[in-house]
Amino acid sequence: MDKVCAVFGGSRGIGRAVAQLMARKGYRLAIIARNLEGAKATAGDLGGDHLAFSCDVAKEHDVQNTFEEMEKHLGRVNFLVNAAGINRDSLLVRTKTEDMVSQLHTNLLGSMLTCKAAMRTMIQQQGGSIVNVGSIVGLKGNSGQSVYSASKGGLVGFSRALAKEVARKKIRVNVVAPGFVHTDMTKDLKEEHLKKNIPLGRFGETIEVAHAVVFLLESPYITGHVLVVDGGLQLIL
Ligand code: NDP
Hints:
alpha/beta; Rossmann fold; seven-stranded parallel sheet; 46% helix; SDR_fam
């Protein structure tokens, strides 16, 4: 069977590093983001027979169409990575409702929709592997990130419940929970100050998270697991 993987949020950051690693390992990839040009650029850089799709994970219709198109052009999707995510950091009292909704819709509802869309094929073929990218703040909470933390904490509950639901179908669902990683999402943070609190003394690199994602994708006896990749941050939070 072809190893076909859909990487939502694959155009930049952690998702892009996952796609690069998986391309080297011989997977056929769908690179998915809202910005089609960004997704195409990443798919093109990978070399080989990879495709790009535009999709907003928060929109059910978009997600369903994207799965139909992926299956038409790439075949059955048996691996799924949910790395699409946004943050709108602010204290709760200053957070606009629309920013609450957009974070919950992209980070939590989005992964629910892609997992649901992937289920039909994975159940039919009696197998599949999913990794959802959470965050250490989904486990520990962080001031100024209450809504983002809720979206990522929700993702853990969702993933563990789904892992139970589909284990008999030989479908596995796991979570990688990164700490601070060098990407567009963290480029405006005060790194010099923040890294003093990280036991390993630095932000992570996207490839370091990608290795954890691919490890879980390919580990046939691990499901419902949350793998923290945070330079030891959880030890002090
Ligand atoms: P980036 O901002 O670098 O990349 C985000 C990716 O998600 C892009 O490909 C973006 O493409 C895509 N995306 C965003 N919104 C949507 C949407 N509605 N539909 C489809 N695609 C979307 O983020 P990171 O790589 O840093 O983050 C990846 C994941 O890791 C996120 O879930 C994030 O919450 C999580 N994370 C990141 C940490 C970090 O320190 N960087 C720490 C902990 C967790 P486009 O804009 O074109 O849609």
